[in-house]
Amino acid sequence: MICKWICESDRVPDPKPRWNPKPEQIRILESIFNSGIVNPPREEIQRIRTRLQEYGQIGDANVFYWFQNRKSRAKHKLRVLKKNPKMLGCNPSKTRKEKSLVLVIILLILVLVWLTMKPVYFRVKTMSW
């Protein structure tokens, strides 16, 4: 009887799965943050959560902690840039698609330059009989 009581009281409930925001939710949160709302009050958090729930399950705490973490990342980035102003020129936030697009454009420019500068012997000669 005692063992049964001790074993049952030691049970820990399964942890909730970690919130994984959808791309739409991140876009909305980023746009709100970039508009100047970096520390929304409770009522605003509830309105934001209601808006984000259209795209997936989310709680008030998720919104609150997202803004806290985002503000922390922004401050950290600012501190890093102040220590090393040379980093202002680099943009590590470019996506793989953006980088690929730049490479394709460069390749097209090189092909166009090559086509306009190709030697005469590459041209097809027509024979006159």
TrEMBL record:
The lineage of its organism: Eukaryota, Viridiplantae, Streptophyta, Embryophyta, Tracheophyta. SMART domains: HOX (SM00389). CDD domains: homeodomain. Its main location: nucleus. PANTHER family: WUSCHEL-RELATED HOMEOBOX 8, WUSCHEL-RELATED HOMEOBOX 9. Residues 14-78 bind DNA. One of its GO terms (molecular function) is DNA-binding transcription factor activity. Belongs to the WUS homeobox family. This is Homeobox domain-containing protein. GO terms for cellular component: nucleus. Residues 12-77 form the Homeobox domain. Keywords: Developmental protein, DNA-binding, Homeobox, Membrane, Nucleus, Transcription, Transcription regulation, Transmembrane, Transmembrane helix. It is found in: Nucleus. The keyword Iron does not apply. The chain crosses the membrane at residues 101-122. One of its GO terms (biological process) is regulation of developmental process. It comes from the Eukaryota. It comes from Brassica carinata (Ethiopian mustard).
